[in-house]
Amino acid sequence: CLTRDGTRLRNETVEAATKTATETEGEDTGTEDHLLSPPAVTETEIETETEGDEDTDRKEALYAQGGIRSYDNRSTEQRPFDRRYCDGYRRLDPSRDRDREREPHGAAESYYPRNFTPNLYDYRRGREREREREESYRRKGSRRKHKRRRRRTRSYSPSSSLLLSLSFFNNFRSIAPGVDEIVSTLGEGTFGRVMQCIDHRRGGAAVALKIIKNVEKYKEAARLEINVLEKINEKDPDNKFLCVQMYDWFDYHGHMCISFELLALSTFDFLKENNYLPYSIGQVRHMAYQLCLSVKFLHDNKLTHTDLKPENILFKREERTVKSTAVRVVDFGSATFDHEHHSTIVSTRHYRSPEVILELGWSHPCDVWSIGCILFEYYLGFTLFQTHDNREHLAMMERILGPVPSRMIRKTRKQKYFYRGRLDWDESSSAGKYVRENCKPLRRYLLSEAEEHHQLFDLIESMLEYEPTKRLALADSLKHPFFENGAAAEAGSSKSWEGNRDISR
């Protein structure tokens, strides 16, 4: 096999890179990954399932009360207490880990280096995304009654430095200088596999190569993601706005392959490795500024991410001790341009805005809501809305943020959640007791009365406005007083952004 300039490619590189997709292609053609992908379910089925087990789930998902510590003033003597608290938190809130660990999809999309444990994806989110995409493909007519044999095609991005002359692949068995080589498998899921590779044409730089199965629905999703990533590269060639960089893409005999920069742990995995101990206020400030800057860039270019969460925000440095909280935003598989069709349901449950739950239509403000939930999680170490039920989710919102505006209640077609203009919620039920005991007004979650802590919660409150039109715009968020004390515009150049958080123990 030859590269674009005639350099030979190691034979085992492409063989290993496409092994998983080739082995499973026969299954996927007929069943569309019935072994790896959970079955698509309707919203009614999800609600019935969650209501049936609500008592058990609520008992398991109780929040830990008190004892929350940050990385300020950590010492060896404090660690036993911290471990007890964090172990308890995991026991009381197992649904998050359980849902994420059923499906190794997220590990592949996070592009971890070889010495990191891959992150596991959110099972329920996978089912929701699968359902929405299948509906989209049916509308577009991509699902055919009779499948025709696929032709082997070769296409590539004009700037590709990893372009393969694939028709000559089997003719070369020797190893030539400057070849690309596979280091390890980073993860795999329903879509295919992600490999860590060495690109010698980039000076031996490590890259993450995402190989998509030769299944039409996954290929179509990959094409949509490539379209978004190419737009980002065009508008931000110097990567000033902190979105993951796509280096190249190509089609190998029907397998879409995308080359990304290699990143480190996600901000969620870092919390998990540290027993869910929250980030310090300085680290929250720096990550919040970068996140607002990056997503503002997307909004300025008429793009909504729609799936912002700690799992999709990755640290840039490839090391076990994070001394700088420089991050990158990843996973643009669900990103939607303003002019494109907007699916009814977007976002992972815990970070889903009220206008999405009530099916009132969504735009850029749904990303702002997600950021507000993310900052709360960074600050406290647990999710703000720990639920998998729409009615309970709305009840939690009312408990924490106040009543849902009457205008939104009148406008929504989800009237089954309301009665006489108010949320239909029985506070005397077991569900009502759970929400009452484990949710409280937002400001009561403050860990300190210091000014910077109040400034953070003022920012979060502005991002968690019910009405999308009243929600804080990201252009204004960058001017918020919370960022003034930290010199956030320097984006990590100051030592005030640095911390020494060791996750190797």
UniProtKB/TrEMBL annotation:
InterPro entries: CLK_kinases, Kinase-like_dom_sf, Prot_kinase_dom, Protein_kinase_ATP_BS, Ser/Thr_kinase_AS. GO terms for cellular component: nucleus. It holds the Pfam family Pkinase. It comes from the Eukaryota. Residues 44-55 have a biased composition (Acidic residues). The keyword S-adenosyl-L-methionine does not apply. GO terms for molecular function: ATP binding; protein serine/threonine kinase activity; protein serine/threonine/tyrosine kinase activity; protein tyrosine kinase activity. Residues 139-154 have a biased composition (Basic residues). This is dual-specificity kinase.
